[in-house]
From TrEMBL:
InterPro entries assigned: Ig-like_fold (IPR013783), PPM-type-like_dom_sf (IPR036457), PPM-type_phosphatase-like_dom (IPR001932)
Lineage summary: Bacteria, Pseudomonadati, Bacteroidota, Cytophagia, Cytophagales
Domain PPM-type phosphatase: 186-467
Protein name, entry field: PPM-type phosphatase domain-containing protein
Amino acid sequence: MAEAKQLVTDLFKSYGITIPAHRMQLFDRFLLEEQNLAILHQLRKNQEQLMANWKIEDRIAEIVQQPIRIPNATVGKPYTAPFDFEQYGWNDLIAFRIEGLEALGLTYSAENNQLTGIPTQSGDLKFSVYFKVEGQPEEAPFHQKDIPLIINPDPKGLWKNLESDKNDPYWKEDEVTLFSPLGDRHLLVSSKRGRSHANVGSFREDDFAYKELPNGWNVVVVSDGAGSAKLSRKGSALACAGVVNYFLDPASVESMIEFDHLLQQHASQTGDDTQKNLNRFVYNNLGKAAFQVHKQLESFAKAQEVTLKDLSSTLIFTLFKKYDVGYALLSFGVGDCPIAVLSKDVTEVTLMNWIDVGEFGGGTRFITMPEIFQNEKFATRFGFKLLADFSYLIMMSDGIYDPKFVVEANLPNIAKWQEFLADLQGQNEDKAPVELSTTNPEIEAQLSRWMDFWSSGNHDDRTLAIVF
């Protein structure tokens, strides 16, 4: 009774009615009247319902305003993130539905309490949870809570792919991928314009060439034009063509016959003399080829009234020929492009050149530099190996070397080359395999796709040549 009396007293007071002391007995009888007791009962019920309604509204507002942070996603990359109602304290939801995920490429699993999928668009986006809480009637409307989600753009998608100027006198294809027999082996080679060049519509600076020579030798050439040199695309093309043309020249074809005799002596004799004679032969013949390329570039620069530096390009080339005793491999290299030969069982790697890094403070050297021919280390730029057999002869520009090997110290490590082959075979982020088989009709398309691998900060031209 006291509670009811206080309730009515407060109610009357809110309307400016105060019960004086001499009216208290009358007030007590008033409260006990049947009709007034019924009103009091209803008043209590209304009061309780009002408080219940307020708690529901307050809880709904609490959920709507509750900050929920979802891990950022990236367009095109598989995404999994927790989305757990219990963790958010939403145990009092009696019904819900989620809308807007499908448009983002995502789905929600109530079983796993996860958001999963592959995002299809980028931006500061959102999806919505529509919900009801305990205490709401079944026919009550759903309430909306928006969940923000940041989806970052695919880094690859930020790069433009602008056409290079086909009217330029030194224009060349942005990509060339070829598969061809070469001697008793096959050559798979691809040279592709880097993203940094495609983004501004400039040219592929790398180049390559190969040829089966009439004396049983085969030559493969790779050149990387310096990005800072305005005509390096022409310099690399001239360098590659120059090497091939040198070894096609009848005088060069004739001079290579001497190697057959020297190798026969080397195979049948022991001692250092035959090795020295072979090394001298390699130095003389490949050195003449390298110097002739340098002079051709010099002549071109003079004729076009440009500087030799404008044609700056690295140069590596390898000749190989099969003999009864195995394969002879001869090599030359200037710049930061490695040449490697892997043993038949891929347990050993033989490096055919040293690359111009480290010793020169990270700077490379180019075939256009006259000083490389005068340097005391010029003779060490040549290589000769006689191997019973090999699985792969691999040549690459720094567009491949930098992301896949990172530092020079990794090149002598056969485990790194095994990883590289595994990468080629499909153990990569893109799941892009290259089946190195002579009967693979998709081999060119597979290598072309593989060459598009993503490596943050490595967007230079890429050239890769594999003899197998």
